[in-house]
């Protein structure tokens, strides 16, 4: 008696496969590309903040306010924020797809991940581009003189 023949794993029982975008491949490529860019952005961020100037002792509210006043650093931080949150969200999506077997639970969790990532991206972007260190400064504040200029 011979064992039944197994179908070729690449064969299709439903006829020829339609050409469509392979979102998993796009996600995989995104993870590799964003990971490389994030390494550069994060180590650049750490180098400028911790190694140049007074190092960690120089980081205070004025240092952050000064950095966020520069469009270069605003875009640097926003790019780092966007890439990191989308990279992390895609990684979480992959984990959910791998380990959650119930379709409805998987769908709810993936939606929750992307809604949360989108909200954090929106909130972080607004903070970076609308940051004003002089809001709410009163005459008894240490920032009063700097904000009067």
UniProtKB/TrEMBL annotation:
The chain crosses the membrane at residues 29-52, 72-96, 108-131. Its main location: membrane. Pfam families: Sdh_cyt. It comes from the Bacteria. Coiled coil: none annotated. InterPro entries: SQR/QFR_C/D, SuccDH_FuR_B_TM-su. GO terms for cellular component: membrane. Keywords: Heme, Iron, Membrane, Metal-binding, Transmembrane, Transmembrane helix. It is found in: Membrane. GO terms for molecular function: metal ion binding. This is Succinate dehydrogenase / fumarate reductase membrane anchor subunit.
């Amino acid at each position: 008696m011979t064992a039944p023949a197994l179908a070729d794993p690449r064969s299709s029982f439903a006829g020829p496969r339609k050409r469509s975008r392979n979102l998993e491949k796009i996600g995989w490529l995104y993870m590799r590309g964003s990971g490389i860019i994030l390494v550069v952005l994060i180590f650049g961020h750490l180098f400028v903040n911790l190694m140049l100037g007074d190092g960690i002792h120089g980081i205070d509210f004025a240092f952050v306010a000064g950095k966020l006043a520069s469009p270069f650093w605003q875009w640097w931080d926003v790019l780092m924020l966007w890439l990191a949150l989308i990279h992390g969200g895609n990684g979480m999506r992959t984990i959910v797809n791998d380990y959650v077997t119930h379709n409805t639970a998987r769908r709810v969790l993936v939606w929750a991940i992307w809604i949360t990532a989108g909200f954090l991206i929106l909130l972080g972007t607004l903070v970076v581009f609308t940051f004003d260190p002089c809001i709410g400064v009163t005459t008894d504040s240490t920032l009063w003189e700097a904000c009067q200029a």
